[in-house]
Specification:
With 131 residues, the chain is mainly alpha-helical. It has a single domain, classed as Zincin-like, CATH 3.30.2010. The protein is built from 8 helices and 3 strands. A 3-stranded mixed sheet has the order 1-3-2. A hairpin with a 4-residue loop joins strand 2 and strand 3. Helix 1 packs parallel to helix 4 and helix 4 packs across helix 5. The longest helix is centred in the middle third of the chain and has 21 residues. The mean pLDDT is 90.
Length: 131
Amino acid sequence: MDIKYLNKIAEYYKKEYNLDTFIDICCQGLATYYKAKQDYIYFSLEFVKHLYDSGDLKQRANIKNLEQGYIFTILHELKHAIDYKNKPDRYELELKNVDTLQYYSDRQYHHSQPAEIRADEFARQELEKWL
């Protein structure tokens, strides 16, 4: 995947939603996530490949190839940044109500959380713009 293309997508949404989010796209890593307090997205190409290979992205968004998986995932993380910018209290409250251990160990539980549902919906809606 061309990292420059992922950065182009990110820059579009940063401008569109007036985000100051720092985005760190790297090749290796065990996770991809948004840290609200730091307004920071860590994006691991390796982890997204793992999500694709495991079937997680196919199940959540009918992702047909790895490139779509990368784009879907950056859109998903950007939605978290948008949500936090627009309604930080709601975003933080939703996170406080999450069982942290279960959130990181149980993919079904993780994806059933309101912020995750919104992020997936946003990414599915926006994906076609970038294919």
